């Protein structure tokens, strides 16, 4: 066979071996990979058409199927070769069953005030509220500490960062393999597997909605400062871009340089790698107004920035660090791994204020009869702390719903829980009558705009009209010899405007072929 093409004898669990021509660089004896046999239909390619496997010939050799990569199955973006499966993968089993691909994909479109739904647990909380199914809340067990090491952190801008938590972990194995279950769940969230530490951070973000960052501790010079940027400071990001910051962009810096864009993306200088041994886990609350719009300023967006600019629960930074730490120990831990205590600084978090809903006001706004009990039950179902008065329902928002600030926010939640499909559809009480202007008042505007529908350039239209009127190239109005001397200027303008419209009627503007 020509270079890079191999004739593979493939056992698909049917007794007879299949001849399949394959050019993948990792095709070799003994591996187990997905195999699409004749008649199989792969997901549509770039042309949008399904790819049906047929018996073919390559260089005169018959090929009775196709060995597949993860990209060809559209379960990952990796196209570096065949998707290698564990050696104990059962021969002949349906790949959809083996990889648990027969699931349902739900695409949710959220309004900006529903940032608490940007996680699996947040969606579970909403489903529980809407269906009454019991909610299984997570538990965060504190990890035992073996060392007292802490990294000095100075939060200089409380209007940027309201809470900053971090922990030192030493002796981790960054060359460990990300578990397949974690890689599969990340893929279902549209996130490819990168490395175990990055995957752990992303996994907890999708799990609980809190972005975090893991630094290479040995690459940090001195301590960390959380502050606004300074003029002419620059930073090379994890995506390879080098950006310049100023006093309107939040940063995390060490004693020598800027290390990351606050709440958006980490820097390349302190990124973890295969050589990393000691790490610093960071979880913080960044004020949404301090993050909003910053990533768009640099023409990119991140999952972290998308969440922080909408609002993230400020109360669970410590718990989420405990969750990340446990996953680090489970995946990257070694007998030499040692965990330090959590350093937690709470400086300026949102002040929770009770919000009162007037039942009569909710009935008027929503447009349907509601009882106070219905309003209270709807809000309690969302996990809100509710107290009732005479015709009022008062809510103390939990930390994950600091977007609930005014009465209209509660009315919206009641309407959402009642169900938009259950709202009445009543015709307007007042008649709707179109106000039509007389033809004499609107003809000039109609004629002027009608020419725009033919696709003729505007300059070309004006030139045609000017040529018909005999106007000069400067588009200067010529005196009207028929005008009476005692006419006022405004009357002359009106007459000339009418003549312009009359002349325009004779001009036939047609689209150019």
SS strand fraction? 15-25%
Number of E-state strands: 22
Structural class: alpha+beta
Largest sheet: 5 strands, mixed
Describe this structure in words.
This protein has 513 residues and is of the alpha+beta class. Helices cover 27% and strands 19% of the residues. The chain is built from 14 helices and 22 strands. It has helices at 95-98, 120-131, 180-188, 196-208, 288-291, 294-297, 303-308, 317-332, 359-366, 372-381, 407-418, 439-450, 458-469, 489-506, and strands at residues 6-10, 18-22, 35-37, 41-42, 51-52, 56-58, 61-63, 65-67, 153-155, 161-170, 213-216, 224-228, 233-236, 242-245, 250-253, 258-261, 265-266, 278-286, 338-346, 355-358, 385-388, 392-396. The protein has a five-stranded mixed β-sheet with strand order 9-12-15-16-17, with no helix packed on it. A hairpin with a 5-residue loop joins β13 and β14. α9 (359-366) crosses α11 (407-418) and α12 packs across α14. Mean pLDDT is 84; it is low at 445-513.
Which secondary structure elements does this structure contain, and how are they paired or packed?
Elements: E1 6-10, E2 18-22, E3 35-37, E4 41-42, E5 51-52, E6 56-58, E7 61-63, E8 65-67, H1 95-98, H2 120-131, E9 153-155, E10 161-170, H3 180-188, H4 196-208, E11 213-216, E12 224-228, E13 233-236, E14 242-245, E15 250-253, E16 258-261, E17 265-266, E18 278-286, H5 288-291, H6 294-297, H7 303-308, H8 317-332, E19 338-346, E20 355-358, H9 359-366, H10 372-381, E21 385-388, E22 392-396, H11 407-418, H12 439-450, H13 458-469, H14 489-506
Helix pairs in contact: 3-4, 4-8, 9-11, 10-11, 12-14
